[in-house]
Amino acid sequence: MTLEKKLDYLLAVYIAAIVSAELLGSKLITLFGVSTSIGIYALPLTFVINDIVSEVVGKDRARNFVRTGLFVLIMLFFFVFLARILPPASFYQNNEAYRLVFGNSMRIIIGSLTAFAISEFTDVYIFNKIRQMWGKRFLWLRSNLSNFVGQFIDTTVFIFIAFYMASATSTFSRMWALIIPYWLLKMFFSVAETPLTYLGVKWLRGSGEVDPVRDRPAIGAASAAPGRLISNGVDKTNTNP
Fold it and tell me: Tell me, what DSSP letter sits at residue 222?
């Protein structure tokens, strides 16, 4: 399987995790004594995939993943909004339940989009910044450090935009009482998913040497030299006159 096909699969999982977290996240569960959204099972995968792609291909492709995810979220919220306002068929009996399930407030939507964009781009930036200093060493530490920071930003930005001063009890201290345990739970998932990062890097890297690929702005793009094509880390120079 080529590197591009593997990246396509990773992007599919990345988008599936984002959509799952958004559509299923309205249900709350209690995990280790913490009330949290069901989306906590899906969203940490996006940080893992960021690290896998950054490690093997580089920050430019990882940022493309984030941009794609942000575009998908915007389209998702648009179609959900459209679906809620369109009048139901005369025989459809579940419109109120449908509107209730997909009835996120505008503050929650804005909070979700903002938190996703800032946290994911920050995760990619920190991971690659540490990699510049440490090289290939300590992948487990680089991955978790960047994830911890990104997840803290994600949790903090979302909760403050979505819920701060939404009611008399939504005070500043109450927000932090929600943020800290939720963030600690995300940190637990980040550590637990560390083996996935190693497996993903090994799978995406394959048997070839991909460090040169990581430093290129694009995979499978033609270079500036005439007759030269770089694809999946292989120099396919056209030597024909």
Answer: B
